[in-house]
């Protein structure tokens, strides 16, 4: 067997940031995260900040009062078939480019961003009210860029930002956190053309780095523990890019 062709990675450390108040529209998210970092004895430098989508959406005012929604005929039909709130369905339809499938109370949609996920990311959990839906950011990569710029303006250096959300997976039970927006980090590591331990050329290996970091942070983002952000030290992959680059070209998608 050949010698390894890459260096052994350095250890990483993940720190949950839980000392944040309830986030509302217009809040200075960067300032609140910096304050939470201080309380956790963390310095935002040379690392990755993973932030859950919900607090980003709340700060950006991506909230909808269901009482103000008039369901369309299509929303009423789907709601009757699947046993869902027609107002919720209507918001999902407005946030979707297409409905992949709906059945058994579940709607799998392709969002306007290109993500394929349940309910187009429209969530009623951990919302600021019982009749409020939280939407995904308008442009998740831009939201990550804006947050990173605000952190840098506060004196933070060499900080990458990942916005994460929990997605289901085809043919697997359970949810996993994935990256829906990023800035200051390459979302994928392309090692094609390098060699494995046996000396064989790697031809198809492209690692979803941002997704892996989001999933790691998700272990600490327990839904009912009030941890909306995680700081990762010791791992700042090279490169720049955005999550939109990870979306598969429909021409090469075997499942459409």
Question: Explain this structure to me?
Answer:
It contains six helices and twelve strands. The mean pLDDT is 90. Helix 1 crosses helix 5. The chain starts with 12 loop residues before the first strand and ends in a 23-residue tail after the last strand. It has helices spanning 29-39, 53-59, 73-82, 86-94, 140-153, 209-218; strands at residues 13-17, 45-52, 63-65, 96-103, 106-111, 116-118, 132-134, 157-169, 172-183, 189-190, 206-207, 229-233. The protein has a five-stranded mixed beta sheet. A three-stranded antiparallel beta sheet has the order 4-5-6. A two-stranded antiparallel sheet has the order 3-7. A hairpin with a 2-residue loop joins strand 8 (157-169) and strand 9. The protein folds into two domains: 13-60 and 137-247, CofE-like (60s Ribosomal Protein L30, Chain: A, 2-Layer Sandwich), CATH 3.30.1330; 63-133, CofE-like domain (CofE-like fold), CATH 3.90.1660. The protein is an alpha+beta fold and 256 residues long.
Give the strand line-up of the largest sheet: 1-12-2-8-9
Task: Please provide the count of β strands.
Answer: 12
Compute the number of structural domains: 2
Order of helices and strands: EHEHEHHEEEEHEEEEHE
The number of helices is 6
Which regions are unreliable across 5 or more consecutive residues at pLDDT < 50? Answer: none
Helix content: 10-25%
Cα(first) to Cα(last) distance is 41 Å
- Reported CATH architecture of the largest domain: 2-Layer Sandwich
Using the coordinates shown, work out and report the CATH topology of the largest domain.
60s Ribosomal Protein L30, Chain: A
Overall body shape: globular
Q: Mean pLDDT, rounded to whole units?
A: 90
Gyration radius, rounded: 20 Å
Could you give a short account of the major beta sheet? Answer: 5 strands, mixed
Question: Structural class, judged by helices and strands?
Answer: alpha+beta
* CATH class label of the largest domain: Alpha Beta
Please identify which CATH superfamily of the largest domain we are dealing with.
Answer: CofE-like
The proportion of residues in beta strands is 25-35%
